[in-house]
UniProtKB/TrEMBL annotation:
Origin: domain of life: Bacteria
Name by which UniProt lists this protein: Small ribosomal subunit biogenesis GTPase RsgA
Function as written in the Swiss-Prot or TrEMBL entry: One of several proteins that assist in the late maturation steps of the functional core of the 30S ribosomal subunit. Helps release RbfA from mature subunits. May play a role in the assembly of ribosomal proteins into the subunit. Circularly permuted GTPase that catalyzes slow GTP hydrolysis, GTPase activity is stimulated by the 30S ribosomal subunit.
Domain EngC GTPase, residue spans: 81-230
Gene name for this UniProt entry: rsgA
Protein localization: Cytoplasm
Organism of origin: Turicimonas muris
Length: 301
């Protein structure tokens, strides 16, 4: 890269006020964003000017195709930009949390990003009967599901997943212990080595486990691994977004007494009736109610 010329690079990590970008040749630079320091996120394409051998200044951020948020107990922040697909890994051991999965589906859907669900550890066949209704429900919600066993059938797993990951930018998520790292290592052979290189380049030491990482996958794909996050941020969603994100609610709205029914305290609500009859999963309704009520609270910021 010649000095002083603008070039486009990918943000591959952010850490506090620092971010790191990778150019087309694979060289990593520390990036300084003057002024608005917080507005770049992993996955962003940015226009840079080289300021030294190892540093660039970010001049501007290219328009994003998509943006996902994560949240912790304190706030919601951007997680990754320009993602084409979210791949969620779950397994029956340790037990999965359906709410985590439903919230991820909602986050992806409202960001217009397709979702791929990977059921891992399918070698534990004793759990099949228990998990089948949940898998059927996910299919009804419109998710693509693939079942694999990353340790018992690694080659088959790789063959099944490869075509679903190539040519795309995939955000890989999952609760702890579901086999996400095992799957990442199957797909990206040098993932562990890359992780070490990152922590050296970023001078993160032990903090690597909390940072989002970008792994190139072929020429035009990538896997973004985000080990530290617990929940997708949904605080920016409106009540309408949430209603639209629950197909079983959306399809019953026309049978509610009030056309603007929120399905909370309103009388003659077709949704609540369906919950009472168990035509709607009460746990899904409980999540709806919680998220809907959250949007109705006055915001204190
Ligand atoms: N039986 C079985 N065990 C698996 C399978 N895939 C992964 N495991 C095991 O599950 C455990 C967790 O796997 P990891 O890949 O470390 O899980 P992770 O989701 O990255 O977990 P964190 O590192 O906590 O985020 C390990 O002991 C794996 O060997 C599988 O297909 N079948
Ligand atoms: Zn209603």
């Amino acid at each position: 890269m010649s000095n002083n010329k603008d070039f486009v690079a990918r943000v591959i990590a952010t850490h506090g006020k620092h971010s790191f970008v990778e150019d087309k040749t694979g060289k990593i630079f520390e990036a300084i964003r003057r002024g608005k320091k917080k507005d770049v996120v992993v996955g962003d394409l940015v226009k840079c000017k080289q300021s030294s051998d190892e540093q660039v200044a970010i001049e501007s951020v290219e328009e994003r195709k998509s943006l996902l948020y994560r949240s912790d107990e304190f706030r919601t922040k951007p997680l990754a930009a320009n993602i084409d697909q979210v791949a969620l890994v779950f397994a029956t051991r340790p037990t999965y949390n359906p709410r985590f999965i439903w919230k991820a589906i909602l986050a992806a859907e409202t960001a217009n990003i397709p979702m791929l669900i990977i059921r891992n550890k399918s070698d534990i066949t004793e759990d099949d009967n228990q998990v089948r209704p949940f898998i059927d429900q996910l299919k009804e919600l419109g998710c693509s599901i693939i079942e694999v066993s990353a340790t018992a059938y690694p080659k088959e797993t790789e063959e099944k997943l490869f075509p679903l990951f190539e040519h795309r930018i995939t955000l890989l998520i999952g609760q702890s212990g579901m086999g996400k790292s095992t799957i990442l290592n199957l797909l990206v052979k040098d993932a562990e080595q890359k992780t070490q290189e990152y922590s050296k380049a970023l001078n993160l030491g032990k903090q690597t486990t909390t940072s989002t990482r970008w792994f190139q996958f072929g020429n035009d794909g990538a896997i973004v691994d985000s080990p530290g996050f617990q929940e997708f941020g949904l605080a920016h969603l409106t009540l309408n977004d949430i209603m639209r994100g629950f197909p079983e609610i959306k399809e019953r709205v026309e049978y509610c007494r009030f056309t603007n029914c929120r399905h909370l305290e309103e009388p003659q609500c077709a949704v609540k009736a369906a919950v009472e009859n168990h035509d709607i999963d009460p746990e899904r309704y409980a999540l709806y109610k919680e998220l809907a009520e959250e949007t109705l609270k006055p915001k204190n910021y």
